[in-house]
Write a structure and sequence with these properties.
This protein has about 350 residues and is an alpha/beta fold. It has one domain: Aldolase class I (TIM Barrel). The protein contains 13 helices and 11 strands. Strands 1, 2, 3, 4, 5, 6, 7, 8, 9, 10 and 11 form an 11-stranded mixed sheet that branches. The longest helix has 16 residues. The chain binds iron/sulfur cluster (SF4). The site of iron/sulfur cluster (SF4) has 14 residues, from loops.
Amino acid sequence: MSDELTTSAASYLSLLEAGELLKRVESLEALLESCTVCPLDCGNNRLNDELARCYSGRLPIVSSYTAHFGEEPPLTGTRGAGNIFFGNCNLRCVYCQNYQISQAHKEQIKNQVTHERLAEMMLELQARGCHNINFVSPTHFAPQMARAILIAAERGLHLPIVYNTNAYDSVEVLRLLDGIVDVYLPDLKYAEDEAGFLYSKVRSYREVSRAALTEMYRQMGDKQVYDEHGLLKRGLVIRLLVLPNDLGGLRDSLGWIRDELSPRVAVSLMAQYYPTNVAGTNPRYALLSRRISESEWMRAISALEEFEMEEGWIQEYDGAPFYYRPNFNDAETPFHDVRDFQ
Ligand code: SF4
């Protein structure tokens, strides 16, 4: 491996060089035969395109791919994150902002691609100058993602891989992704199982998501690694989308992150919730039928200070762009507008 690669290389290049990446891919693909790719453990044979909860078979489904400028500043940078949006999902969030992608499997099946095509998309995004490859909703396609990374790495991919997930992930799969993923970006949705069941239609969200984040933390620790331009190369960033009526249990989640992981884990506090999908129309979900109020948002920011979280980003109240503060507790540290980010 060249010196250039050893100093700034994405971690999967080391696995490729050691001959380990193919073994990981094959171990991940073996989970498709009686599917345990996510904690729902459906047991269907996806290698034969038997479909179950996530309506996803052997091949990856890509809804779209593009340079994206709405992620956290060290992922967006100046040339965008290289987003690849997978179709379908293992959750059924009643407020999903991408429900046309995640919950419309009859349409999404038309977007099935080969592993080779997925690898080409990654290389296209790299050629466009994107700073990373940001897989959005990768959980149900983790084996396909890994196979495509292998193909793309053999053809010159070197960007960091971002795993942008709903946190309902299998610990076994995450262990196999150790060294393949460079940045974990889980969205920790709820602190209570009841909310996970009512609003995302899965059981044991609290336990499953916390086990997943514990594994991500085991791999990454609480230190984020940036390059000389301030771009995130490696680490764990936990997203916390503030829901109306505190349905996400923000304080419970922050207390758990601080006490069981570390107050130095980066958190990204998000204000962008709006009622969509059935959250705005079905009376069963009336508590989700509005945006958050300014006072709810201010309480969420106060909670970051109360729990003495030290690293991360806070979204502007009206949603975008992100404002960037490297250290929540450092009053001398100015906020930087994402447009000024270098
Ligand atoms: S990835 Fe899909 S088929 Fe496999 S266990 Fe999860 S929901 Fe079921």
